[in-house]
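Usage example:
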Amino acid sequence: MVEFRLPMLPQPGEVVWSVKINGIDVKLNIESNAILLDVLRDQAGSLGTKRGCDMGTCGCCSVLVDGEPRLSCLTLAAELNGHEITTVEGLANGHHLHPIQKTFTEFGGSQCGFCTPGFLVVSSALLSENNDPTDEEIKTAIEGNLCRCTGFQQIVDSIRAASDIIKENNSIEDSTSAKSNPHPGFMEGG
Amino acid sequence: MSKDKDSKEIQGYRQQPGKLPFSKPGSGGKNSFSKPIDLENIPVSQNGRKDQPWGPHRHDSLISGQVIGRPTALVDSAWKVTGQAQYGDDIRLPNELIGRIVRSPYHYAKILSIDCSDALNLPGVVAVATGIDAKNKFGVLPVTKDEHAMAVDKVRHAGDLIACIAAENENIAREAERLIKIEYEILESIHDIEDGLEDSEYPIHDRGQYHIGNSNIQKRVFQEFGDISSLEKNTVASHRSNWTFAGVNHGFTEPHAVVANWSPDGRLTLYTPQQVPHYVHRSLADVLEIPMHQINVHRTFVGGGFGGKSDPFPHEMCAAILARKSGRPVRITFDREEVFWVNRGRHPSKIEMNLHADSEGRICGIETDALIDGGGFASFGHVTTYYNGVLHTAPYEIGSFHYTGARVWTNKPASGAMRGHGAVNSRCAVEVGLDDLAEKLEVDPITLRLANLLPPHSATITGFRVTSIGMRECLERVKKESGWSEKFRKMPLGKGIGVGCGFFISGSGLPIHWDPNKFPHATVHLKIDMDGGVTIHTGAAEIGQGSDTVVSQSVAEVLGLPLDMIRIRSRESDTSPVDLGSYSSRVTFMNANAAISAAMKIRDELIKAASDITGASLNSLIVGDRRIFDKNDPAIGVSYLEALHKSQEEKGALISSGAYRTPPMGKTHKGAAAGLAPAYSFSAYVAEVSVDIETGKTTVDKVWAAHDCGKALNPLAVKGQIIGSCHMGLGQVLSEEMRYGRSGHLMNPDFLDYKIPSIHEMPEVIPIIVESNDPEGPFGAKEAGEGPLLPILPAVCNAVYDAIGVRTEELPITSEKVFKLVEKKCRLQGISNPLDLKSPRLEFSDLQNTLDKRAQLHSKRDIERRLNSNREEYYNGAIFGLEPTKSPEEIDDNWSVRVIPEENYLLSPRLAGSAWKHIERRNMGD
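Running the assembly step on the lines above writes:
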């Protein structure tokens, strides 16, 4: 057997990383060569940002940097000092879902859900720029994202439906509002 | 009436009724009225307006109009869209270690020694384990346990596990990986599937007395049914083809990940994205040598399975072993390349397909020979070997069936179960063959199919019991909606249309791990306490297909409750009843049936309570939206909560358990259980393609996809499965391929080179749901998860032929292959410019009319059969003039049933058939 061993790589230096993640100022010590995806998942607690391939082929790790979609697995974290990062956790307003989150559930845009965060951040960027995208524009926006479950059709449906909600400025119900009454026909206090 | 009764009973220290200043307990919000019953959703048999072309169903009286049949968002989707869903790698326990796996760089080698001392001395390394730490074998099937947590004596493919390391972080673990010194003795590896049939100096496994010769044959199957002797005499047209199918990977987006944690009480919790947590549970007990009750298998969210997460995996054992050694939680996450090393994807296959038709346009013979490449381990291989044959014995009535199949070990990552398990490749070969037969008989391929379908409530040639069959309607719908008659063989060069069909099992009739007479296939527990919410405990694995949703829907429907009152706990083996997991498209059929049976028990109790309160008779009470009332006078009734509290008076929380077991079915020959299912789904697709005749590039433009799923409990999910299946099938037919280099190395273990269709390759798919109301299925439902994948491959292949007149016998149909086929055709016809080629045309022969008439006659027969509850038996063979009510082997001397080849077969066996040349070791006589 051929013996070859690379020497252990030198330890990377540490840098102070200060960014805004989902609207909150974050200051972390990170390794100078750290990848954004690793920092988000392992240090910043954004486990919603998914790791699918580590080489930019699946789009599961997509996040928004200053509103622009970026593949976090191909982004050097240190480059983003001072920038604003939005992950899937930052799309909803408290318990009010973003329209795209609501329509992904209602139109079957999400099956296993692993690729969903990537699709959501990318399509939310599209919709914030263009609230009436054509099918071609939708397809172009999500072409870097891979979904193995849905066959994409229901994802496009979801994005189209979300654009309708945004256009009509319809509000989305707080998920904590009261659900079904098990005792119908009897008024409160009755 | 009820008040008087109450005031008599409630005495003493109890608060008097009517004096409570507060509302009824637990009533919550202000939405006070229940919905009126929606007659559109109530079946005709219950005086509603919902059409039932297949007649009434045994579950009709349970329809409360709540959720069944309505497009329903998955109950766990809110977690997924907010990023809160925890998949394997999202389980982060305090003080965790990171595990890494050391993998073999060689295809096949003996391990002479492993030295871990340097790795263990590296600061930050906490534990290292190798094969000697866990010598017990495990595997999916009890008869083929051939895997170890880590290699014990030899490695069987590049990427096979040798050791594993737990360290403080990933960098240290990776460095330790390089410090482990392993001495190998390299053995001659085999990569060609045909080499596996030959005797070898070092067979990849040793199956002891069951080993077949000295070969690498893992499993061989011989099956001969029907009137083989008259085949030659009756045949007027034949199709012969030799297919090569590349292996494909599931390509789920979530790489495998596992977390193992031993709690202070000595119990193991394994967090894993598994389709079949129960197999892991069993395997862990075997490997770790602890009883099963000491293990809690926690299924995390599963980021796509498609069969690829249904084996118990060695890395799951590794995590448990490392966690045991280190005393800390261990998390192992794969990178994408490792996913390909584990594989379990569709088998690379060589399939020889001969089809024969007689002068009446009947399929008088199917002769299949399938050699499939199992890679390094058995996995589900026994079953796959059968499925390649038996899963194309329907939906057509056939005169004879001859199948030889063999699965061999090679030094590749193991193949296993993948969506459409074992049926996809051979189905493609059959359906393309039928297209060719139609061409030879000069008839329309759809008419040919329609004139040869099995009727409802019949038996296939191998003895599978077919109940509902919506195949005819599927074909008719896609024919009409695609405008088939105006397009077929009439489109310009480069444009084509093609049809394909398929059928698939709806749950396996035989559970892998136990005798179905001893345990049910599925069990569901329910618990309802005074808050009124219903807790479902089931072990059915939600893998994104909507299993949690469909079980919740079933319970909600029977109890008349909105879905938000149902909560489902399906994750942990500690709390859920044993379930066989999500494979063979069994969950909707079996778990929804079990859920219905559990919910019916609660429903009975609620109705009894309502009767006690109102005085109405039990028979007159029905369940509506959160209310139980008299169907003759809806004003008489109680709320769900009142009935619940009444029935809780004596015993507290209501609990119930429901189970489902398949009825006894099928025949008794060896292998008769493989492919046996309580019901089968059917589908027919038409695909329209464009082929660039100069470059060979195939583009699928549109697909009409009709699927008979029995009843669509959740049409949103069914459509999602149909479109998703199309996408996955299109990948296999157009671009996906696990490519192995000349030295046997996997060349594309990543998503850059393994080409899954992107959104731009995805055509418009028109999903068409056909409902056949299966008598055995829950509310009439059958499967929708795997069957819809089958027809897309042949539909595209047939459309390519319609477009340019060349047939491929190799998948995927890449541009290069089409280009070469076109080039060859041009050369043969002496044409220099491929644009001068003629696209195929077809003038129908007289047989077309005969077939048309037969199809119409059969259509009437089918409707009569499905609506008549006193129908007679119908055995395959009747179309050939045999008495339909008697099993042909009993009445026809020419009818053979054989599962072991005769000696003269071995004089000139086919490719996979040659596996029978070897003698099993136990029969060698020494």
